Amino acid sequence: TTLFRSHHRARHRGYGAARQYRSPSRGEDVELNIEIKAFAARGRAMASNSEIDNITTLLDQQTHLKDNEGKHKFVLKTPKGTRDYTPKQMAIRERVFNTIVNCFKRHGAETIDTPVFELKETLTGKYGEDSKLIYDLKDQGGELLSLRYDLTVPFARYLAMNKITNIKRYHIAKVYRRDNPAMTKGRFREFYQCDFDIAGQFDTMIPDAECLKIIHEILSELQLGDFLIKVNNRRILDGMFAVCGVPDSKFRAICSSVDKLDKTPWQDVKNEMIGEKGLSPEIADHIGEYVQLNGGLDLIEKLLQDPKLSQNKQSLEGLNDMKTLFQYLALFGIKSQISFDLSLARGLDYYTGVIYEAVLQNTEPRDQQKKGNDEEAANVGSVAGGGRYDELVGMFDPNGKKVPCVGLSIGIERFFSIMERKAEASEEKIRTTETQVLVATAQKELLEERLKLISELWGAGIKAEMLYKKNPKLLNQLQYCEDNGIPLVAIIGEQELKDGAVKLRVVATREEVNISRMELVEHIKKMTSGC
Predict the structure, then answer these.
(1) Could you tell me the pLDDT band of residue 369, with boundaries at 50, 70 and 90?
(2) How confident is the model at residue 427, as a pLDDT?
(3) Among 480, 478, 483, CA closest to 512
């Protein structure tokens, strides 16, 4: 058989490769083997050309059958924690992006981009317990790589690598986390982050206050519902842990436990501190006296008088910074939606000062929430967060040179989930294109004239379409405008061509007016300026 397989391969290089055949079933494989063995027994010398052709076909069939053995049925789906987006969904997303980018630019930010993957060692040790959520890539030739977990660590690497000590930048890009996805809450494994950061040495709390102002502006403009921005300070937390008796080596681990208080009752967090983190019940109870406090400037003043916290250097510095911050927030007019919350910890290791997190208190009226899914509909968790990280850049600099930084990150996917649900509830018709006018005709044989007119409009910057038919019916053209939300129709016919005019029709009101061809562009711009 080996002899004939060799001949079979040679035939494949010539005309034999083009032979067509029917794929055999599994049961026919036995018959194929019998025929092949019988052919081999007679020997190649006794075989005719037709027999050789036949056995070549049999070998092809056997190979095809074996290639398909053990194959599972392919399921067409997106990977877990990811999704596709329809044109309507992308229209909502683009609206949100534009709102966020306009706000970032209004505050004077410029933009950068960084690779979607980084050296694994760049990301290692920066995220505390969340490091287990990093996607590691297979070794592709000497470099161990990981998909970026956020945009902050790559930004710090960028600053250190390029010796930048002063920049105000925004960055919108995808990040990746091996998290347990919750699609209805906007928690994915692949998702966009929208980051704004200020790097440089500045006076205390001024850039920090601006970051909070930006979060407030974006949430207010998108009208997602009532929101609250929680703030705290890592130095207050560290000082609090110290006066409560937490060993230095357990600060970050206990900080991670405290960070769960927004979703987990205090008793469960306390049990974790004692059972898993090794704290004594007395120390845990002492922590509980502090982390369940929240308020405003009055709470800051109260803690400044606390006999233990006021004697701790870190806590005292943090409380004084918070007092300054709240004074600036009052001047910005946003103090009423800011809460000083001692349970806020944000588990990432790189934070060193002020930290903050924005949560939506209710995203839609109760009567619009889906039955049996009220809690998910009403609470999507944190939608923005950030803080100060003064030492992260120094981790990458060969000389350990620090660049103070403060920033924020907007949870765009959670915004999108809320807005999509609201659009469905209101049955709002969402335009997926920006077409201003459809070039149409009521008569036949005017394709060339339509092509000329639409080319003129494109050249003048007008967003225009036409149907891809030589002689479309006028009713079909008007219906296309109705279905796609196109506000105007530019109709040309024999009479309009003679007069050098175009009939401009407003789709919504069905009003028509004859416009000089020379004035058409200006009329379209004026009539669609608010669209």
Answers:
(1) very low
(2) 75
(3) 478
Report how far residue 3's alpha carbon sits from residue 41's, in angstroms, rounded to the nearest whole number: 11
> Cα dist. 426→132, 327, 423 in Å?
40, 40, 5
- Structural contact between residues 244 and 279, judged by C-beta atoms closer than 8 angstroms: no
For residue 381, which amino acid is it? G
- pLDDT-derived band at 378 (thresholds 50, 70, 90) equals very low
CA distance linking residue 361 with residue 349, whole number of Å: 27
Q: For the chain, what is the mean pLDDT?
A: 86
Element (DSSP H or E) covering residue 387: strand 382-388
Amino acid letter, 116: V
Residue 100, by phi and psi: left (phi above 0), alpha (psi -120 to 50) or beta? alpha
- Joined together, the tokens standing for residue 29 give 């494989």
Q: How far apart are CA 131 and CA 149, in angstroms?
A: 9
Strands 167-176 and 110-111: what pairing? parallel
Asked if 436 and 210 touch (Cβ cutoff 8 Å), the reply is no
Q: Report strand pairing: 110-111 vs 338-341.
A: unpaired
CB contact at 8 A, 374 and 277: no
d(CA 109, CA 111) in angstroms, rounded, equals 7
More confident residue, 44 or 300: 300
For the stretch 441-451, pLDDT in tens is 999 999 999 99
The closest of 226, 202, 246, 218 to 107, measured between CA atoms, is: 218
- Kindly write down the DSSP assignment for every residue of 293-344, as one continuous string: -EESHHHHHHHHT-TTGGG-HHHHHHHHHHHHHHHHHHHHT-GGGEEEETT-
DSSP state of 432: S
Query: Could you give the dihedral angle defined by the CA atoms of residues 175, 176, 182 and 183, in that order, rounded to the nearest 10 degrees?
Result: 60
Convert the pLDDT of each residue in 486-527 to its tens digit.
999 999 999 999 999 999 999 999 999 999 999 999 999 999
Instruction: Tell me the β-bridge partners of 388.
Output: 406
Contacts of 523 (CB under 8 A, 6+ apart): 504, 515
- 124: nearest Cα among 100, 93, 98, 145: 145
Quote the tokens at residue 409.
């990150």
Q: Do you know the residue count of the chain?
A: 531
Cβ proximity of 517 and 501 under 8 Å:
yes
What is d(CA 254, CA 278) in angstroms, rounded to the nearest whole number? Answer: 10
Phi, psi of 142 (to 5 degrees): 105, -20
Nearest to 235 by CA among 298, 316, 346: 316
User: Considering all CA atoms of the chain, what is the largest pairwise distance in Å, rounded to the nearest integer?
Assistant: 107
